[in-house]
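Students often ask why we bother encoding 3D structure as a string. The short answer is that it lets us treat folding as translation between two languages. Here is a chain of 386 residues written in the first language.
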Amino acid sequence: MGQLRLASLIAAAVSAAFLAAPATAQNITLPKTLTFTAYDTGSSGFNIAVAVGKMYKDKHGTDVRVLPAGNDVARLAPLKGGRAQASYMGVGVYFGQEGMFEFGVKEWGPQALRLILAANDCNAIGLGVARDTGVKQIKDLKGKRIGMVVGSPALNQNALAIIAFGGLTKADVKLVEFSSFGAMWKGLVNNEADAAIASTITAQVKEVETSPRGLLFPPTPAADKAGWARIQKISPYYAPHTATCGVGISKEKPVELPNYPYPIFSTYASQPADLVYAMAKSMIVNYDAYKDATPGAAGLELKRQLLKWALPHHDGAVRAFKEAGVWKAEHEANQAALVKRQGVLEAAWTGLVKANPPEDKDAFYKAWQTVRAAALRKAGMEVIFE
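And here it is in the second language, the structure alphabet:
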């Protein structure tokens, strides 16, 4: 049975688990079990997934299984195969939409992904650096060892974007590959790397902070316009942010760092609207039940949602936002533009695959980049990655 056929059957089965009447704040119907994916055990994304899962259990009797996965491909594969309903992703979900990096292979391509809710809290997604390196500013990282994760373009692209703030490229540093996010941060503890990307509140950064090496997050001040232009050329989803929580950071000692929503609770457009609506609605109305359960969970608050971001929202989530009175015409316009972009990317990919593309992986990716860029330009859309 093909993956699309399997996914369709599972989607139909999930839909059948719902009552015919619309869900309300008092009557939100979820299936008996749900499966989500997230970053490694101990990461803030995993912990938030568990906290929301506990709320689903307490409020709806739903058992939630959270599968830790070491890279973006591994996090999305269970969704693509119909074995999970949603994922607490990093910005790799954006790369999946764009069909870039590890998603620019024949097995993947641009994905019809949708946002449900995303956390925007006091933390940031920065480059943590071992204190014993003597690094104080991003430019001091020249010649240092930067952690990379195989199959995780989000982490890798972010690290390269941040060193660009200091005028550095990958030629100016030593890239050290690890098998997963957790392994990369163990590498800092074991002095196998000097810096790695992470949320300022994730458990792994705290472990390095308390190790003999220590840890800090060098700032990326918003006033440095040239530095920020270099960041956003590589990672346009990043924005200046004043972090007030995390390793070496507090309200009394804030640090200006790059940031984007994390974790990004996302799914495929093909997931049943009733299911996604119920998940989103429950997270909105039962916010008090999980907001203090783990650092970062408070960022899922309704008023902190970026309703105009780089990924379209799922129709079920939009329904929940409309009921909450926060979905405006500007959000609808952005939604339509992003869905149209996904359609352009899908059509470009389909055309490439049908045109007998190169078998070699690198040659195929180069061909896809060319076709992708041409299709986006023809549609009057930004290419972003060139």
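Translate back mentally: Confidence is low (pLDDT under 50) at residues 1-25. Keep this in mind for the problem set.
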